[in-house]
Amino acid sequence: MQLRYAFRLYPDTGQQRALARAFGCARVVFNDAVRAREDAREAGRPLPSAGELSRRLITEAKRTVERSWLGEVSAVVLQQSLRDAESAYRNFFGSLKGTRKGPKMGAPRLKSRKDTRQSIRFTANARWNITASGRLSLPKIGAVKVKWSRSLPATPTSVTVIKDATGRYFASFVIDTDPAADATRMPETDRTIGIDLGLTHFAVLSDGTKIDSPRFLRRAEKKLKKVQRELSRKQKGSKNRAKARLKVARAHAKVTDGRREFHHQLSTKLISENQGIAVEDLSVTALARTRLAKSMHDAGWSSFVHLLEYKAARYGRTLVKVGRFEPTTQTCSTCGVKDGPKPLNVREWTCTACGTVHDRDTNAAINVKTAAGLAVSACGAPVRPELILAQREETGSHGFPTGAWA
Q1: Whole-number Å distance between alpha carbons of 300 and 215
Q2: What is the spatial distance between Cα 272 and Cα 223, in angstroms, rounded to a whole number?
Q3: What is the pLDDT of residue 384?
Q4: How far apart are CA 302 and CA 103, in angstroms?
Q5: Partners of residue 161 on adjacent β-strands
Q6: Phi and psi of 174, rounded to 5°?
C-alpha cells in the first residue's frame, strides 16, 4: 500500500523565491496544456498527445524569448504538471462516459497565480535527496530545512512540495509500506466493535463507550466571525487585506488540523484494539442538505470513515459498512423486534416486546455490529458470513497527504 508522510518545511528567503518560480512555471505549463487542448477541440482537430505537448510546451518553448524562463526550474516539475493536466482530462472524460467512480468531474480549468494552494512534484528522476544533516535537497531550489516529526519507514518514491493558504510549506513523501512490518506493529486480536456516528456524541461504541464530539468549528466560530468581519472591511488589493486574509486562513487551518488530528488518533485507537469494525454507510451528501449541515461538516464523518478504511486494509483488519437503510435505531438489540421510528429528541426508549430499556445510540451501535455479522451467536458462530477486507485505491501523487498522520 502507498501512503503519504507529510513534514513541515522551512525554506529561507531565497528558497521561497525559487519555490515561487517553480510554482509559477508549473502553473503556466498546465494552463498552456489546457489551452492547447481547448484550441484543438474548437478547431475540430484531434487532441494533441502527451508527447506532442511535452515537445511543444516545454522543449521548444524554452528556446523562445517568451518562455525562456522555463529553463530556470527542474524539467521534472514541468513534466509532472503536464501529467496533472492529462489526469484531469482523463477523469473528466471518464465521468462523461460513466466509467469513473465517485462524483462527476468537470472540465479542467485554468489555474490562477492567486490560488491559495500551490504544489509541485519531484519524482526519482529529479534526483532529489535527503542530506546527511536532514535537509531536503531539491534541484534548482537547494537544501530546505525539514522538521522531522518521525523517521521515514522506507525510501520515498516521490515528494510533493505544497504551499497552503496560510503560507506554510510541506513536503509530502509517497511511501510503499511493508505488510510484514505492519503486521508486527498491530498483532491480531479477538475484539470486534460496532460504531454509531452522531452529533451529540461523535461516536458511540457497541460496548457502551461514548466519545464526545470536539466540535472544532463551533468552538472557533466566535474568532472566525471576528477575522471574517475584519477581512470584509479591508480595501481590495491592499496589503492590509492580504494580512487579514492570512488571519482567516490560519483560523480555518487550526480548525481543520485539529479535526484531522482527532480523526487520526481515534481511528488508530479503534483499529489497534479491534480486529473487526462495523460502521454505518451514511449518505453525508444528502444529510448535509438538512438544518444540521454545519454540525455534520464539523464532525467530518466521511474523512473519519475513510481513515478507518485504509488503516483496516493496511493492518489486516476487517471493516464492514452497514447499509444506510438498516433500521438500527428502531430495532431492539435484545429481542430483535422492530419498534418503529423515533424522533431525535428520544434518547432512551423501552422495548414494547421484552421491556428492555435502551440507550438510543448504544442500541444502534449494537445493531450495527449485528447487521455487519460481527456479533457471535450462543454457539460461538458468527451471525453473518465471513467478511471481506476493506479496499482502498492507491494513493496518487496529487492533493494533500491523506495518510500524513497514519
Answers
A1: 10
A2: 36
A3: 41
A4: 14
A5: 120, 171
A6: -95, 125
What is the model's pTM?
Answer: 0.85
Q: How many residues does the chain have?
A: 406
In sequence order, what are the residues at sequence separation of 6 or more whose Cβ sits closer than 8 angstroms to the Cβ of residue 53? 33, 36, 82, 85
Nearest to 32 by CA among 63, 76, 68, 67: 67
Cβ atoms 36, 103 nearer than 8 A: no
Cell digits of residue 374: 460481527
Residues forming the active site = 196, 280, 361
Exposed e or buried b per residue across 329-365, where buried means at least 16 C-beta atoms within 10 angstroms of its C-beta: bbbbbeeeeebeeeeeeeeebebeeeeeebebbbbbb
Q: 255-275, pLDDT tens digit by residue?
A: 999 999 999 999 999 999 999
Long-range contacts of 10-16 (CB under 8 A, 24+ apart): 10/144, 10/145, 10/146, 10/147, 10/169, 11/141, 11/144, 11/145, 11/169, 12/145, 14/142, 15/141, 15/142, 15/144, 16/169
What are the DSSP E strand ranges found in 102-250? Answer: 118-123, 129-130, 136-138, 142-147, 158-163, 169-176, 192-197, 201-205, 210-212
Distance (Å) of CA 84 to CA 29, 74, 277 = 10, 16, 36
pLDDT for 375: 59
